[in-house]
Every structure is written in structure tokens, then in C-alpha cells.
Amino acid sequence: MSLTFSAAAHRYRLDGKPVTGATTILGAGIPKPAIPYWAANQAARAASDWLRSLGDLAGADLPWHVASLNPDDAYEQWRKAPWKKRDEAAVRGTAIHALAERVIHGEDVDVPNDLLPYVSGYVDFLDAWDAHPVLTEKSVANRAHWYAGRFDTILSIPGLHDGAPVMVDLKTSNSVYPETAFQNAAYSRAEFYVEDDDPDTEHPLPEVAASYVAHVTADGTRLYELSPDRAHIDESFQTFLHALAIKNRWNPKQLQEVTP
Question: What is the pLDDT of residue 67?
Fold first, then answer.
């Protein structure tokens, strides 16, 4: 019995078999994954058609930076633009998470200049709340519902729930959203966690009293409440399980054409 996590591929294996991550479940179970790609594709196609129409209308009179564009090349760039930005943001977020993991345990770190405001703000947040780590960056799993995941932090904060453990997810995106409660609920209701260097030994999770999201930005870190108590965590977990059921059923390849 073991739970392993590949950071490079962001894949989990439980008992030697692939297991779906909580964020993948939510991404496939609540929104419609094909819609953003379709929308980006349509926007890129419209922009490419517009560029062609400019060429037909103006010919050689187009400004050089427009005339030199190839419509097909422009289409490919515009089509991929949203995910290029997403991937760039993910790289930054991963770097900040790695630094935060070391900072919260009191390690000295060398911080790149472009990330310094994020890390400094996070340190100020930890000091202001007198936050202490209970567990950080642990892989968790649930065999009953067959999912895995990796939470950011479980903290003890004296001013919240009398210092009882609370789940805090770190977000470096432009905004934070209440549906992060579903993600935190899945982690909180996992059956066990493992250490990265000992994937075969399962440890029980502490009882999580509430969940929060910490928005780590260049302007500082702000804390937002997601689930104020265990009852709300349980409700959010039920929503997560609904997303899991939808994800397991959402498979266009299962559709079969019906003919007269």
C-alpha cells in the first residue's frame, strides 16, 4: 500500500494504480472543460479572419507590423494565448509555493527579486496571525471515493477556532473564489496522508476545524474564510462528490450515433 506523487507530471498513484487528483476532479466535474477551448478557438479564428479582411481592404497600405503578420501564424498564437498565460502563472505560483513551504518552517531562503514582494507579504501574514504549521505540503488520498491530492498547509492560528487546526490553501492567481472550499473539503476528508520520503506509511489527518484561502499577491497576503466550521466542510465535501460523479460520467466517447 502506498501513495506517490510525481511533481513533474502532477500525477498520483495509489496502491500502484493511477488515482485522480482532487483539482482534476473539480475541473472536469463542475465546469465544462471544452467550452474555454472552444471560446478561445472562436476568438482566435475571428481575429484571424479580421486580419485577412484588413489585407483585402488595404493591401500594401497596411502598417508594417500588421502587413508582416501571417494570418495562420497569428491564429495559432491567439488560439494558444490563454493557456500560455495560464502556464506562465502556474510556473510563478509553483515557485512561490516552494518558497512558502520553506519560509513557514523558518528556513533562510534566497528569493528572486521578482518574487520578493510575494514572499515578504507572506512572511508578514504569518507574523500578523502568529500562524504555526501543523502540516505542510502533504499528499493525501481517499480509497473509498478513489481520489488523491496535495494540500498546502494546515495551520494553528491562535485567533481562529482557539488554535485548532485549519486548512489554508495558498493562491497566487489574480483572484480567489469560493469554490476553493470544495478543494479544501476533499483534502480535509481524505483518509490519510503520507510523507514524500515514506509513501508506504499512512498517517491520520488531524481534525480540521475550518478552511481558508490565503491570497498571496505582490501587494501582500490576505486571508479569506471558505468553510467556517466542520458542518460547512461536510456540505462542501458533498459538492465535491457530486463533481466526482459528473467527472466519471463525462465522456463524449461513450456517445453512440443513433440512425433510423
Answer: 52
